[in-house]
Specification:
20% helix; 1236 residues; 6-stranded antiparallel β-sheet; globular; alpha+beta; hydrolase; 21 helices; Glyco_hydro_9_His_AS
Length: 1236
């Protein structure tokens, strides 16, 4: 039996060696391509070793045949030119279509000549050289300009592989062109020289073009020399002719090149005279009344299986420089009206979205400190899912907020396109939303399958560093009929429909594509109705959806507006009525689309009903409470985002047709909210704009220093950002207009794509309104498109027309349960290694915890010295699995001093710096066996990791110790391996449900929770249940928090804590106290100097995981021993609050704002234990329980309906206090003069 390896690369198919002389009677795939190894390709088994007659490889887009003594020929798409077979039989010829860097689909073609026993005919070197080099110019290899650049080289599966990018400097008009590439080493079996020839459509060129390909070489260090040949070049010139060289004995392989014109420079970087803008003084031309389309919307192209992007590195950051924003300054007359240069605001907001880009950045990338990243996204399901935006200061691609941000941005460009044009930013604005719209098309991988998220949020948030240097696995999460998500799918349909309307005139083909996808996604959302909280369970910790019906109505409204089809008008109106869209709360966010749906339906239909609903909403929103300086205040999480969103809706009402009665009032409100963000109160809240702008946004990428300096958790709280994140709107001040510019305060300084979406549209809308006649609102053609009704629900529960759901690449689970490798300490990889110490086997009874011999560690050179073992990643340990590492330790000595032992893992990569991950720590006393155990997982790519070593270390070097009973077990040990059947890629952990904030101070990750602590503090059962988790730091002073307290004791203003949502109990634990003990710091740090600390619960932490705590600065400093702000392990429990946390010796309660005898809200104060209930009694009536607050806060509500009544407060301890109220006074605090 022989194997014929075939290499699949972006440049086509290469035989790995000369064609084997063996007949092919049957073929089987010996090693199919996977998401991580494209270069290894397919190995086709040849059953009989007789002469090869034919080899045939069938794939989706092409067929390859290699037959005896014939030139192989590939079936090409109809639009692709077949290679002409003119090669002499004595040579081996290959014709390959290389992929242009921005081409969406690529035909791969290879012509391979089978090896024969006929002697080869050689050609005269001199004559071949003359033929090959006539009319040629040797190019200088300059990245992004000319020649061929080898950007990445790696060794995989026994082969040297590389990725090459070429640029041809076309000057004028050229024909009969070809490219000759000479490599310094043989490229597979192709020799050292290639000829690249044109396709049928690009034989004549008049502009620069580029191309790229993936190939493999016989050795590393690949370099290339390139000649550009075409009619008109004088080959005799010494300046351009190539040196005479011996030609290979066979003709060079010929490869056909698909070309793509090089992208034009960004409009921002062109001279003003070249910008395609509408002058502010010139009224735009009237657009055509209607546009239509005759496309068949029933035929749609989905994201096909592709692994071309999986063999390259996940990121690329070669050089960095500061962003230099340019914009067209507004006139003095305009600024006098708008108060600020809104051209600058719009331009810099667009730059913020460019800084959030994931994927391969375009050549005209303006954010120079960013590079390519997320280049392997989708590899776990065999799809190219590169692109889209990173959500905030993290690197997860959350589908729901990204789609809403895209819809809202697109809406603003549709409404106020003339304002963008007048600002000189229209083309940049289109590119801004096209980036994500194209990504959503990629996410539509089958008729009833849509990718909702890329990245595990929990793992992502444990990383602080550059996007380009991420190493964690980024799993894919899919919505399908079996895992519905009407909210995220409906919102994506709305975005694509809005994009269709925006691009209808300038790019009707693209508009049709967007609309076709929107139609099918609407059907998926409508036919399988459910929120996505179950499909992606941990999404509730980040972006929990509180309903999906508004997204369905929002989608149908946009589809009707984008099509103008009366059938869809009926659908949109039915959704609006059936889903109660007219009944809306005050919020307009990524989770609440009711206000937006009202406005879109009004703009699409001009129906007064929708005008009434929209006006009612805005009137209600304007009554919302405001800060002393005028910002409308909804909640503490990103208040400026909420203010901008509501102002954008007010702007829609102000610009509505027909004009609403309060239009002027709505506009004044909208402009005031915009000006607040831009600096009307004395400081700007937009990074890089105005007076005293924020300098410390909570954003990983911009916080990282220039390479080669390291970026890690030290940057999470260290001073002004090295790179200015131009245009980003921060979360903003609290309800008293107080704001601290600190990266550690992620509530005030978080930035996110959904923060800027309505804000940018608001700036454009205000500019448009104040430009008057020079800005026509909704300056676009009205569509008139016959769009078919949405597809019906499949009778089988899931569409049979779709391919099976992809199997997640990391679905296999390690079920091993193994001991650490035993053996002598000095034997290196054969067992234990004594790192900086002396190790020996001891068999004394006291030295064996398990009844066998133990291992003694002595003569240690430092606290870091101790035993260690190496593990092979991909063999001993598998990615994506949790492991329990355990060892028993017996310190030596006659004292009784407890000392800390820690277990850590060091991950050494094939390139780049190693990563340290803590596993566990424990206090151990001499002559006692103590268990050291913790859990850890390794979310890295197997091919990136060189070695994993687990260390045991920690006590002073003078301390000797013995270890025994070491083991490393998978948490799945003893369980059957998970079946890798077709299913949705598994679920992850997304973002804060309140808004778009998340765990802000996460360090090098660990999932360890099995920490042991023998401190007497935790042996006191009366103190309550012991909790274990991570502690972080989040604020210097309390601001009322989600508990809503009006005041605090002096002790509470210093020592306070926020609980994770699951443990906050919707506010019921407000006012309780917790006792905290730090158990372990990160590698290289510790909290040994820390002290047991008590803090009061005043807030919730939506992004914290169960068991975690967010501490005040003072509480962190005390419990950690003044360690730098980071994330440490801790144990904690609820206790009775000490007296110093009470404001008075007696019990008080607060009657909240807005209370009366008809609606009473009571908040207890100064209680040392948890409040169980509050009851009310009128006159001689019975006691009735008051209802605990229905929104996240801390109060009980009732309706006494009389002026005088009694209240009874009862603690969980059973103690009660009764107090008589003679009159309800809102916003008052009452001292009962009693004690519990």
């Amino acid at each position: 039996m022989k194997l014929l390896p075939i290499l699949l690369g972006s440049s086509g198919i290469f035989a790995q060696n000369e064609t084997t002389q063996a007949a092919l009677e049957s073929t089987t795939v010996e090693k199919p391509c996977n998401s991580e190894n494209i270069g290894s390709g397919l190995e086709i088994k040849l059953e009989n070793e007789t002469e090869v007659e034919e080899i045939q490889l069938q794939m989706e887009d092409f067929t390859l045949k290699a037959a005896k003594n014939e030139t192989a020929e590939m079936a090409l798409p109809e639009t692709t030119q077949k290679p002409v077979k003119t090669t002499p039989k004595s040579t081996t010829t290959k014709t390959t279509t290389t992929r242009a860097t921005t081409t969406t689909t690529t035909a791969k073609t290879t012509t391979t000549k089978a090896t024969t026993t006929t002697a080869k005919t050689t050609t005269s070197a001199a004559s071949t050289e003359d033929s090959a080099r006539s009319n040629c110019k040797k190019l200088k290899n300059v990245d992004n300009q000319s020649g061929l650049i080898i950007r990445a080289q790696w060794f995989d599966k026994g082969a040297h592989q590389f990725n090459a990018f070429g640029w041809m400097p076309v000057s004028g008009r050229v024909s009969n062109w070809k490219i000759i590439v000479e490599f310094n080493t043989a490229i597979s079996d192709d020799g050292k020289t290639w000829e690249l020839l044109p396709m049928s459509y690009n034989k004549v060129l008049d502009s620069k073009f580029n191309f790229d390909f993936l190939a493999k070489a016989e050795s590393g260090g690949v370099k290339a020399t390139t000649w550009w040949c075409h009619d008109g070049i004088n080959g005799g010139s010494s300046a351009t002719s190539s040196p005479a060289k011996a030609q290979p004995t066979k003709a060079p392989p010929q490869k056909h090149v698909q070309t793509k014109p090089a992208p034009k420079p960004s409009i921002i970087n062109r001279p003003t005279s070249e910008k395609t803008t509408t002058s502010p003084s010139t009224k735009p031309a009237n657009p055509p009344k209607t546009v239509s389309s005759d496309v068949d919307f029933g035929k749609i192209s989905y994201n096909k299986a592709s692994k071309d992007h999986c063999s390259r590195a996940g990121g690329n950051l070669k050089s960095q420089s500061a962003t230099k924003p340019t914009f067209k300054k507004a006139s003095k007359e305009e600024v006098a009206k708008t108060k600020y240069d809104l051209n600058e605001v719009i331009a810099k907001s667009i730059l913020f979205y460019e800084a959030q880009r994931s994927g391969e950045l375009p050549e005209d990338n303006r954010v120079k400190w960013r590079g390519d990243s997320g280049l392997n996204d989708g590899c776990d399901i065999g799809r190219d899912l590169t692109g889209g935006w990173y959500d905030a200061g993290d690197y997860v691609k959350f589908g729901l907020p990204m789609a809403w941000s895209t819809t809202t941005l697109t809406w603003g460009i549709i409404e106020y396109g003339d304002a963008y044009k007048a600002a000189g930013e229209y083309e940049n604005a289109l590119a801004q939303v096209k980036w994500t719209l194209d990504y959503f098309v990629k996410c539509h991988i089958a008729k009833d399958q849509f990718v909702a998220q890329i990245g595990n949020a929990k793992k992502d948030h444990e990383y602080w560093g550059r996007a380009e240097e991420m190493r964690m696995n980024r799993p894919t999460y899919i919505i399908s009929p079996k895992n519905p998500g009407s909210d995220v799918v409906g919102e994506s349909a709305a975005a694509l429909a809005a994009g269709s309307l925006l691009f209808r005139e300038s790019n009707p083909k693209l508009a049709d594509e967007y609309l076709a996808h929107a139609r099918e996604l609407y059907a998926l959302a409508k036919n399988y109705q459910k929120d996505y909280n179950s499909a992606i369970p941990m999404i509730t910790e980040f972006y929990k959806s509180w309903g999906y019906k508004d997204e369905i109505a929002w989608a149908s409204a946009w589809i009707y507006r984008a099509s103008g089809d009366s059938k869809w008008k009926a659908i949109a109106e039915r959704d609006y009525n059936n889903f109660g869209i007219q009944y809306s709360g005050v919020e307009s966010t990524w989770d609440s689309k009711k206000p937006g749906t009202m406005a879109v339906m009004l703009q699409a239909t001009k129906n007064p009903k929708y005008a009434t609903h929209l006006a009612k909403y805005v009137d209600s929103a304007l009554r919302q409470r405001k800060t002393p300086k005028g910002m409308i205040y909804v909640q503490k999480w990103a208040p400026l985002r909420h203010a901008s969103n509501i102002a954008f809706m007010a702007l829609q009402a102000a610009m509505a047709e027909p004009k609403l009665p309060k239009a002027s009032q709505y506009f004044q409100f909208a402009q005031k909210q915009l000006n607040y963000a831009l600096g009307s109160t004395g400081r700007s809240y937009v990074v890089g704009f105005g007076k005293s702008p924020p300098k410390e946004p909570h954003h990983r990428g911009s916080s990282c220093p220039a390479k080669p300096k390291t970026c890690d958790w030290a940057q999470s709280g260290r001073g002004p950002a090295p790179w200015v994140l131009f245009g980003a709107l921060v979360g903003g001040p609290n309800e008293q207009d107080r704001y601290t510019d600190s990266r550690k305060d992620y509530i005030a300084n978080e930035v996110a794509t959904d923060y800027n979406a309505a804000f940018q549209g608001l700036a454009a809308g205000v500019k448009c309104k104040l430009l008057g006649g020079d800005c026509t609102v909704r300056n676009y053609a009205r569509p008139s498109i016959d769009l078919p009704l949405p597809p019906a629900k499949s009778s089988h529960g899931s569409s049979s027309s779709s391919a099976p759901l992809p199997t997640k690449a990391t679905a296999s689970k390690d079920t091993s349960a193994q001991e650490f490798k035993n053996g002598d300490f000095e034997n290196g990889h054969h067992g234990w290694i004594c790192n900086g110490c002396k190790g020996s086997r001891v068999a004394f009874p006291w030295a064996a915890q398990s009844g066998k011999a133990g291992y003694k560690v002595e003569s240690r050179l430092g606290a870091w010295a101790g035993p260690a073992q190496d593990f092979v990643f991909g063999k001993d340990l598998l990615p994506g699995n949790d492991y329990i590492a355990e060892v028993y330790i017996r310190p030596q000595g006659n004292d009784q001093k407890a000392e800390k032992f820690i277990m850590t893992a060091n991950i050494e990569f094939k390139s780049g710096k190693p990563v340290w991950k803590p596993i566990a720590s424990v206090q151990a006393r001499p002559k006692q066996w103590t268990r050291l155990s913790g859990t850890i997982s390794f979310d890295y790519k197997v091919q990136d990791v060189k070695n994993i070593r687990i260390y045991i270390e920690g006590p002073p070097p003078s301390r000797s110790f013995v270890i025994d009973s070491a083991s490393l077990k998978s948490v799945h040990a003893g369980k059957a391996p998970a079946k890798t059947t077709a299913r949705p890629a598994q679920k992850t952990t997304p973002k804060p449900m309140k808004t778009t904030t998340k765990p802000k101070t996460k360090p090098t990750a660990t999932t360890a929770r099995n920490w042991s602590n023998n401190s007497p503090l935790w042996q006191n059962a009366s103190g309550g249940k012991l909790h274990k988790g991570d502690i972080t730091v989040y604020a210097e002073k309390p601001d009322g928090g989600n508990c809503g307290y009006p005041k605090f004791s002096d002790e509470t203003t210093k020592y306070f804590v926020a609980l994770p949502k699951p443990m906050w109990e919707k506010g019921a634990n407000c006012g309780r106290c917790v006792e905290i003990d730090c158990t372990a710091g990160n590698v290289g740090t510790n909290c040994d100097a820390g002290k047991t600390t008590v803090a009061m619960v005043v807030d919730s932490c939506p992004e914290c995981h169960e068991g975690d705590l967010d501490l005040s600065n003072a509480a962190w400093d005390k419990v950690s021993g003044n360690a730098g702000h980071s994330r440490f392990k801790a144990n904690w429990k609820f206790i009775e609050c000490p007296d110093r946390f009470m404001m008075k010796d007696t019990f008080e309660f607060h009657i909240k704002e807005g209370s009366s005898k008809w609606w009473l809200a009571v908040m207890p104060l100064n209680h040392k234990h948890k409040m169980k209930s509050i009851e009310i009694k009128k006159g001689d009536g019975a006691w009735k329980s008051m209802e605990f607050g229905t929104i996240d806060s801390f109060y009980w509500k009732g309706a006494p309906q009389v002026d005088s009544f009694e209240l009874r407060f009862t603690l969980v301890t059973g103690q009660s206090i009764t107090h008589k109220v003679s009159e309800v006074v809102a916003s008052s605090t009452i001292d009962t003069k009693k004690k519990f």
